[in-house]
Amino acid sequence: MDVFGIRLVGVNAENGQKLLLTVVVFAFVLALRRGLLWAVRRTVGRHAGESARFWTRQGINLGLSLFLLLGLLSIWFDDPTRLATALGLVTAGLAFALQRVVTAVAGYLVILRGANFTVGDRITMGGVRGDVIGLGFIQTTIMEMGQPPPVQHADPAVWVHSRQYTGRVVTVTNGKIFEEPVYNYTRDFPYLWEEMTLPIAYTADRDRVEAILLAAARRHGAAVTEASRAALAAMRERYFFQAASAEPQVYYRLTDNWLELTLRFVTEVRGVRDIKDAMSREILREMDAAGIGLASATFEIVGVPELRVRGDGLVPQ
User: Fold this and answer.
1) Quick one: fold of 191-289?
2) How far apart are CA 303 and CA 317, in angstroms?
3) How far apart are CA 96 and CA 276, in angstroms?
4) What one-character DSSP code corresponds to residue 143?
5) For residue 30, is it left (φ>0), alpha (ψ between -120 and 50) or beta?
6) Dihedrals phi, psi of 202, to nearest 5 degrees
């Protein structure tokens, strides 16, 4: 084919027709996608939650992508022999040049098939902790949350010292599920066992402190404890693991300086900081009322040498 006297290599009437059909198919798919998304917003968007709307859009994108792929293959490879040869070349090229992309797409399929996580779950993936706010073919989008003090040394460092949003939106390749473990906080058991540790003097009324801790945990987590029992029962039917108690418990630990009381209790995944803050305030009020204080590191001087005072200074005797 000649254009303004320039011969276009590899372009003829047949290829030009196929190119035109390709443009038409692309335009049709884009228009169809826009129409379907508009219909979803007008129907599903009014009655469904955010997760249902997301997966509806995801299903539309996946279905139209398959339709577009089949349409392009039908246009350009009407001969099965040519199609097999082209697929072989494309596969070899992808395996060499796009290894990470192929791995990411494979990870997306595994995420969907294996139900590793979904939108709205709180996970740790690729060193990032937070809530999943987007799931694409190649990347997972996470709203990052802070880190509690025991893991503040993690990389990258986070300045928020609790499991609350930092404001950073992080994208992680789906291929990470093949390289690192994925921690899901909400998939089967949307609760956490949390702990609060208080040091008290050995001479303090330890029984009174234990009663204060248990009362605060039961008062602020009664509904959670009841719901977590049902979740634990469901997990025992699905998985093999040792039975665990959802009731608040207090454990003792002896140290050189004080008695360490650790309160272990069940709480929901979200809102942990608010619950621990309310419990801490109540525990401090009750301990103040009982006249019990928290222990701290102190030093006692058990003896000093006698000193004799002279006009020229201090001289040990």
Assistant:
1) Alpha-Beta Plaits (3.30.70)
2) 14
3) 52
4) E
5) alpha
6) -65, -25
